[in-house]
Structure formats: C-alpha cells, structure tokens
Amino acid sequence: MKVIRVVAIALTIGIGAGSTAMADGFKDCTKLDKASWKPASEAEAKAKALGYEVRRSKIEGSCYEVYGVKEGKLYELFYSPEDLSLKHTIAK
C-alpha cells in the first residue's frame, strides 16, 4: 500500500513538472476584452512583414502566438492583440 502511494505521488510530481517544462509561460499581452482585439490575421501579417513564413497561429492567454520559420529555424512570436506590438520571441 505504501509503495503504491509513493509511486502515485512520484507520477503526479513528474506529470506536473513535465507540463510546466513544455509551457513557455508567456501569455500576458493585454488586459483588453477579447471583443476589442484586432484580428489575428493582422498579427500574422506583421510576422510575414518581418520575414517569417507563418505556419499557424493561436491564442495563448491574452496573446496571439504566431509560429513562423525564418532562415530554417522555428520561432514563436507573441503579439499583443490590443496594438499588435511584438511582446516576446522564442527560438525553438
């Protein structure tokens, strides 16, 4: 019984640590209500203007997260949907 409890705790800790490691943690770009956000297509257009080949985009927290490739390398670009300013970039 004690071994099962230890294994269950270890699995819980491991799963929690794994999900934290996978998340980049950047998702606070604006406090503005979603109804007032600019279209995501405009964030993609900004990334293209910077020379990225846009693969896809999604909403991450209160940011537009745009996945793009530049010079053979994958990047995650985080834009504020309020003013489409680039808030953060992560090279993968």
Automatic annotation (TrEMBL):
Residues 1-23 form the signal peptide. It holds the Pfam family PepSY_2. It comes from the Bacteria. InterPro entries: PepSY. Residues 9-85 form the PepSY domain. Keywords: Signal. The keyword Signal applies. This is PepSY domain-containing protein. It comes from Bradyrhizobium forestalis.
